[in-house]
Amino acid sequence: MNPEKHLPLTETTFYILLSLLEPGHGYAVMQKAEELSGGRVRIAAGTMYGALDNLLRQKMIEPVLSKDPRRKMYQTTAKGAHVLRLESERLKHMLDIYNRIQGDG
Question: What does DSSP say about strands 61-64 and 73-76: parallel, antiparallel, or unpaired?
Fold first, then answer.
């Protein structure tokens, strides 16, 4: 299966995958995404849980054991990390082209 078919990622998906490079639960991911994005990305609970279900189906995240049985914990899979890396490279390529055309200042 071609991982590039998942590109481009939405900002929400990008920050969820990035946040789940370390295991976390939905609420913690919502907080971390907001922190990492400097407040630009705020994920509502409904959006978060829909995105988690979608990422689980795509095998880009997986459940992990939780010390608290009331909280479902997830982590980015190798596939999800690969897609995240591809997206980062895609964005860097676009930024490099912009900087080359516009100049670095």
Answer: antiparallel
